Amino acid sequence: MDWTGVILTLLLFILAIMFLLKRGSSRNKSSPNLPPGPRTIPILGNLHMMDLKRPHKTMIEWSKEYGPIFRIRLGFQEMVVLTGYETVKDALVNQADAFADRPFIPIFEEATKGFGIFLANGEHWKVMRRFTLSTLRDYGMGKRTIEDKITEECSVLTKTMETYAGKPFDVTRILTAAVSNIIVSILLGKRYEYEDATFLRLLKIIRENVQLAGSPAVLLYNLFPKLGFFLGARKTIMRNQKEFHDFIRTTFIDYLQDLDDNDQRNFIESFLVRQKQENMKMTHDGYFHNGNLIGLVDDLFGAGTDTMANTLRWAILLMMKYPEIQGNVQAEIAREIGDIQPRTDHRVKMPYTDAVVHELQRFANIVPSNVPHATSMDITFKGFFIPKGTHIIPLLTSVLFDESQWEKPHKFYPEHFLDSEGKFVKRDAFMPFSAGRRICAGENLAKMEIFLFFTSLLQKFTFQPPPGTSKDDLDLTPGVGFISTPVPYKTCAVLRESDTKNYNKLFTQS
After folding, report:
1. What is the spatial distance between Cα 80 and Cα 33, in angstroms, rounded to a whole number?
2. How many whole angstroms separate alpha carbon 413 and alpha carbon 324?
3. CA distance 243 to 205
């Protein structure tokens, strides 16, 4: 065998790598106003240094070395990471226009085609967001009408939990169904029973896609799209997406057959009426088409289901982990409202409960990496030049756990939201819904849901670990995925004393 050619090829390969490394180093030196960052290698960039299961943790470590603004490259994708409350707020709020775009992300582009509001840009996004916010308000977001629906669903949920009679069970299915029914009532004008086969299938699709979207396999696909053919996760997401979109199409076709312009009963009907009106104009804008309807329903259904359900799953787990805090909440509920159905008006009477609700959202850190942004223009930000179209990661976990903003950032500590007199205080660094132009469209609805579901559950039950499990055995390590989920657990929902007496009385009478 002639080794000369092999050795020559190897030497040329090594020289090529050295040239690329030197070129990258000289580029950094010749562009001192670009953000700093870890050294890259060809093809992989910094991918070999990244914790693919929890990339936000690696970014936090890099911020300690390179500062609150730094540049990384994953595969061929250049990114700028923003960390800490002051930096993230300055970008998303004070420089909102410059950081308001979304980047091109292959898996989402393939799944949504850029429709809806989640990853849309430009005038398209502005029109869809205006319509969405206006229509959500029409169907009760922030009003008494939607509050009534939430309290009715709270009643169904607590009655369902009673059927477990204090025995261990997994809360995931019924919590997900309960919170999803709220957004479903807005989108479709109805609710589903928790055992409905179609409903359970839709919830499974959403849960699976959210988990896969944050998996290492999908991260690799986003960086190297040509690998998609070999990645099962990408195939599963697309298959699930098609099934979900087929359901939406069937649903709005049914509504088309019975559409009354003067009696719009839900979000889909409002969109279809607007679509009809736009189509009648000679110069319609072209935004109200079926693709955007599917995209909007997809976005709202997913956002109103998985993030809410996981927030409440964290709430129950944390109450089991910290029974003294659970007891304090229950004492305040008993003192201030007794057995009355909790309403949002009660929030001002219950500062400790309100503080716990806020702290569990902070601690749960539901979307640690945030939804990516992109720069809409060239900008010099805090002394660093960031070109137009740069992929931006405003790291929410770095805000919610910012040591300069929180007294005990890594502990579950409701006192973060209480003053010395026990009164509730707002905190500027409380950003679980992000901030600026791209703040969650359903923020007000989500806040109402979390408070009402949480207080209704703790008014009725004490949550305890299963027999043989102590609070010290409970694991607060989040699962892997785009959404920060608690590890699977079981709980015992034990009726509180007053409810136990009422239950026994009714049982005796029957």
Report:
1. 13
2. 12
3. 8
State how far the Cα of 487 lies from the Cα of 475, in Å rounded to an integer. 7
In the block, which residue shows the tokens 């997900």? 176
pLDDT exceeds cutoff 80 at 12? no
**In the predicted model, is pLDDT for residue 412 greater than 80?**
yes
- Which residues, in sequence order, are bridge partners of residue 82? 69, 394
pLDDT tens digit sequence for 341-350 = 999 999 999 9
Share of the chain above pLDDT 90, in %: 73
CA proximity to 88, closest of 446, 371, 408, 410: 371
Residues 497, 461: Cα–Cα separation, whole Å: 9
Amino acid of residue 152: E
* Pair 86, 68: CB distance under 8 Å: yes
SS3 content of the chain, % helix, strand, coil (to 5): 55, 10, 35
* Local structure of residue 486 (DSSP, 8 states): B
Burial per residue of 426-442, b for 16 or more beta-carbon CB atoms within 10 angstroms, e otherwise: eeebbbbbbbbbbebbb
Please tell me the distance from the alpha carbon of residue 184 to that of residue 177, in angstroms, as a whole number: 10
Per-residue pLDDT tens for 225-253?
887 777 888 999 999 999 999 999 998 88
Q: Are 168 and 464 in contact (CB under 8 A)?
A: no
> Residues 6 or more apart from 46 whose CB is under 8 A from it?
37, 38, 40, 72, 73, 74
Residue listed under structure tokens 């896609």: 209
Check residue 491 and report its DSSP letter.
B
| Pair 171, 491: CB distance under 8 Å | yes
DSSP 27: H
Q: Is the CB of residue 394 less than 8 Å from the CB of residue 373?
A: yes
54: left (phi over 0), alpha (psi -120 to 50) or beta: beta
Q: Give alpha helix (H) positions in 139-231.
A: 144-162, 172-187, 197-213, 216-223
476 touches 486 (CB < 8 A): yes
Contacts of 215 (CB under 8 A, 6+ apart): 233, 480, 481
**Taking residues 308-317, what's their average pLDDT?**
97
- 87: closest CA among 411, 405, 427, 412? 405
**Choice among 300-314, 364-378, 470-484 with the minimum mean pLDDT:** 470-484
Q: What is the pTM of this model?
A: 0.89
